[in-house]
Specification:
Layout: E1 10-16, H1 22-35, E2 40-45, E3 55-57, E4 63-65, E5 67-69, H2 72-78, E6 84-87, H3 96-106, E7 110-116, H4 128-134, E8 137-140, E9 143-144, E10 151-152, E11 154-159, E12 162-163, E13 177-182
Helix pairs in contact: 2-3
Residues 145, 147-148, 150, 182-183, 185-186 line the site of zinc ion.
Length: 209
Amino acid sequence: MRLAPSSHGWLEVVCGPMFSGKSEELMRRMRRAEIARQQVCIVKPAIDDRYDAVAVVSHAGMRMEARPVATAGALRELAEDADVVGVDEAHFFSDDLVAVVQSLARGGRRVVCAGLDTDYRGLPFGPMPHLLAVAEFVDKLQAVCHRCGAAATMTQRLVNGEPAPFDGALVVVGAGEQYEARCRDCHQVGIPEPTACRSRRLARPYHPA
Ligand code: ADP
Ligand code: MG
Ligand code: ZN
């Protein structure tokens, strides 16, 4: 059983690949806090307006109102009066998010951060590794591999149906872009164009050393 610290705030991190249910889990926790009549503040990075600019929306259509914030500093101000703070897509924030979240927790708030633990290459994403290290509670969710049906821990990025190259931009919203949840065996990273002939070791499946 998990005992929540009561005299001060704390940080919970919900991570995993795309489609693993991070946003659903964040909303479930926020709804329960609302039922308990706690003051809830949900934010998301202003960059993420794929489904809705002012709501957290899950892949299955569950939604909850959220304030878009451009920086972690803006979150600090918004969260001033909240008992519970929810941050979706936390990986898109700068490392400043860590200090803001720590200070909110020290100030007595419960903070829940949901985000991708790794990017499409399988590497730690933005402030997530630091958040995971300092959190009181961590949940790592799994999706279903789009290819084989096994538990998926990685995010596959496809560009025009092909694995995206290792040196592609991390944040791209463009035509031909597609994401899938994949298990370790099915996950693929394309090799960078200029070194394609030299680095055959990077050919699929990619496993970081
Ligand atoms: P995340 O925020 O982690 O990207 P969401 O909470 O938005 O995930 O969506 C999770 C939901 O997506 C699941 O409950 C399920 O209905 C749906 N879904 C679609 N594809 C998959 C998949 N490959 N694995 C698991 N769930 C999936
Ligand atoms: Mg999500
Ligand atoms: Zn698989």
